[in-house]
């Protein structure tokens, strides 16, 4: 049998397994349940891995296979595991995963899932380093370099990743928060010149440049409010009580709660809360057809506070990229710049100087590897690259849509969006081991 190489992307919502042959062709795929090692615990993690690998192996060899394996089928495996942040975590997983797959520990790579996003570095021989840019509900930037004479990548440094209260710049949460702040700043400035009685028809506003609802009209309609002070009752209301599992079948199973919104390219018709609940996205009509007072949206309070703001992200993207709303574009550019600042933090200064022992990477030797729902939208990714160009002393392009931006605009060695981390990891693993 030709050597087979397995990679698993183990995240909070699912485990995705991909098997490739020695040439990098995908021969099998499988999926399991939630597999954030810290959140679900060892037992639930191994069950999810087992389900994903069994499906992938059956897909690859055409027959049902039950783990643990009695003899090796997989030549080498890479587990990119969310929640595996310390060397002790990887060590704890080595023995059970080695026994599950019947492969020796030296042919088992266990890392944080961010390492998978850096796997395209193996296909850029001219590059020496990579910066992973994660932009979804949250955000984080991590730099890596190739290991000399060894398999895998060495993590160098991180910028960001401090969670929604202290960080998550440029993320879905950041977009929602920045949009609300922008609206509040507009309100504060307008109140200097206009009485508050004249500022209460916001849900019916039409932007003079686009002839479409303004950003704040969309936000107010989405939340079902009529004025900025009403935001207090939406943004600061307490989180809903957690929904505990129906049974105690697994002590490791995490409580289910409303999760992050789903963001597609360029927008989504609805915001997913959980399997049973969706929040309708705003579909405003002409001002004359609207009621004077928006209908309250009771489902908003089913969301945790951070997800109430994140739920605004699809409408901001739609307003910016579909309608060309200038306020929404300003919001996205502001968010893109904060994410670009984290990327820039991991690079050598613009004058090229570098302190001995520094872990900063040289941009011309670095591949930017984007991953996540937000940066999966090319126009937003273009804004991030454009802002990085500005920070590095370039002029920038200005709209996030220019040709050539995916190549790094002369600042970095390349720009890649990793939409299938498990596949990229498996291909990278095959290139390292298939000799």
From TrEMBL:
Q: Name one Pfam family in it.
A: BcrAD_BadFG
Transmembrane segments in this chain: where? none
Q: Which GO MF term does the entry hold, naming one? A: N-acetylglucosamine kinase activity
Disordered, as annotated region = 243-300
Enzyme Commission code(s) on record: 2.7.1.59
Q: Output compositional bias ranges, type Low complexity.
A: 275-289
Specify the ATPase BadF/BadG/BcrA/BcrD type domain's residue ranges: 8-195
InterPro entries from the entry? ATPase_BadF, ATPase_NBD, Euk-type_GlcNAc_Kinase
* UniProt family annotation: Belongs to the eukaryotic-type N-acetylglucosamine kinase family.
Q: Mind telling me what this protein is named?
A: N-acetyl-D-glucosamine kinase
Give the organism the record lists: Rhizoctonia solani
The organism's taxonomic lineage, starting at the top: Eukaryota, Fungi, Dikarya, Basidiomycota, Agaricomycotina
């Amino acid at each position: 049998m030709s050597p087979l190489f397995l990679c698993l992307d183990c995240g909070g919502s699912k485990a995705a397994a991909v098997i490739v042959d020695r040439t990098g062709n995908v021969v099998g795929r499988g999926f399991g349940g939630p597999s954030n090692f810290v959140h679900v615990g060892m037992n639930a993690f191994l069950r999810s891995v087992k389900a994903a690998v069994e499906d992938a192996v059956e897909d690859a060899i055409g027959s049902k296979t039950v783990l643990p394996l009695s003899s090796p089928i997989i030549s080498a495996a890479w587990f990119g595991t969310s929640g595996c942040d310390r060397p002790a975590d990887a060590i704890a997983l080595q023995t059970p995963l080695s026994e599950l797959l019947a492969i020796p520990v030296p042919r088992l790579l266990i890392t944080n899932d961010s390492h998978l996003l850096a796997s395209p570095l193996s296909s850029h021989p001219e590059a020496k380093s990579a910066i992973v840019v994660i932009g979804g509900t949250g955000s984080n930037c991590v730099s890596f370099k190739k290991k000399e004479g060894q398999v895998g990548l060495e993590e160098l440094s991180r910028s960001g990743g401090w969670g929604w209260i202290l960080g998550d710049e440029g993320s879905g949460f950041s977009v929602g928060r920045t949009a609300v702040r922008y609206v509040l700043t507009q309100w504060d400035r307008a109140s200097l010149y206009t009485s508050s009685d004249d500022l209460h028809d916001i849900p019916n506003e039409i932007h003079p440049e686009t002839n479409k609802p303004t950003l704040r009209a969309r936000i107010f309609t989405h939340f079902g409010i009529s004025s900025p002070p009403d935001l207090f009752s939406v943004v600061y209301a307490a989180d809903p009580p957690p929904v505990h599992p129906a049974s105690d079948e697994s002590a490791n199973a995490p409580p289910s709660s409303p999760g992050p919104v789903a963001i597609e390219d360029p927008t989504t018709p609805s915001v997913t809360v959980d399997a049973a609940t969706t929040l309708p996205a705003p579909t405003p009509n002409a001002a004359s057809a609207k009621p004077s007072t928006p209908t309250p949206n009771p489902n908003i309070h089913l969301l945790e506070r951070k997800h109430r703001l994140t739920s605004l992200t699809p409408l901001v993207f739609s307003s910016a990229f579909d309608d060309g709303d200038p306020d929404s574009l300003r919001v996205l550019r502001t968010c893109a710049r904060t994410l670009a600042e984290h990327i820039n933090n991991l690079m050598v200064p613009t004058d090229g100087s570098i302190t001995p022992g520094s872990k900063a990477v040289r941009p011309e030797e670095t591949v930017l590897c984007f991953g996540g729902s937000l940066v999966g939208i090319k126009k937003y990714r273009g804004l991030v690259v454009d802002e990085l160009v500005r920070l590095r002393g370039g002029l920038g392009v200005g709209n996030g849509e220019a040709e050539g931006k995916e190549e790094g605009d002369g600042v970095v060695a390349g720009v890649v969006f990793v939409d299938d981390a498990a596949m990229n990891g498996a291909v990278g693993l095959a290139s390292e081991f298939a000799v």
